[in-house]
Amino acid sequence: AAKAAGKNRFAFYDQSMTDHARNMLHLRHELVQGIQEGQLLLHFQPRVDLRSRRVCGMEALVRWQHPERGLLMPGMFLPLAERSDLICLIDHWVLETARKEMLPLAEFMGSIRIAVNLSARDLYDSEHLDHLLSILKQNFSHGGVLLELEITESTLMQDVDAAIAQLHRIKQVIPGVRIAIDDFGSGYSSLNYLRRLPIDILKIDQSFIRDLGGENPSAEAIIRSIIELARNLGMRVVAEGIETESEALLVQGLGCDEAQGYFYSQPVPMDELIGRLDRNLTLSQAI
Ligand code: C2E
Ligand code: MG
Ligand code: MG
Ligand code: MG
């Protein structure tokens, strides 16, 4: 009986695996079609300069308006896209669309910075990098909308020497582009590599913010040392995932330059964000 049950369990497991594979294939098919049919859209989340309290840039975050399942967050479809070239198609679409949507604001302001996330494939595949460079050149060579590229710490650490070379190429093609390390502190970066990478900004991972102000002082100690490190290397520091006023005051006190999070604004469509910005680029609900 035990043997039979084991066998059944195996059969069940096997069946669920094929179901999973079939679902993934179906989702991939829907995503390809969705991209062609214009179902991707962008939400923008402002980044606030902690000294002036003004919006100093935005991050573009992709969403998928699925015809039956509603608005899907990147966690629902980017991991699948990242298994193939599909992610590059998405990231190129994001770069072009983000610039287009930012243009009116950039014209009004003179200039404004947009941060866009890159994936490992964008950076490490030389064919994709050539394509990426041509998209960057077409869209960000004229000023107005200034570009920041966010790359996660773990992506950069996959192949640091290649990352250094590719980032230098990007910086050569787009003068004034800034490079940010996203989710900093969540991976394992060597401080020696950090010195060699042409990085302008460190975005402290949300997990440290979540742990701030509790009993355990270690999150605060880590943020302090990240800031000191950034200062010594000439980088700016952004605190991600700020949800409350007390978190905003804490990271400001610790010396962060900029902050981003639900306390200031959720990621929202551009129209909505523009409606909340006054002439001085201050958010109507911010402190
Ligand atoms: P990320 O680049 O670290 O973006 C920050 C994520 O944290 C976003 O999730 C944002 O909505 C969320 N967030 C912002 N403020 C808060 C807060 O106060 N509290 C909490 N709990 N969360 C906050 P989202 O939009 O679901 O994006 C998840 C990740 O997907 C992004 O993390 C980024 O790595 C990736 N991603 C998003 N758009 C793109 C894209 O166009 N291309 C690529 N390659 N990756 C993207
Ligand atoms: Mg990011
Ligand atoms: Mg992040
Ligand atoms: Mg992230």
From TrEMBL:
Domain named EAL: residues: 24-281
Protein name: Diguanylate cyclase (GGDEF)-like protein/PAS domain S-box-containing protein
Full protein stretch here: 459 to 745 of 745
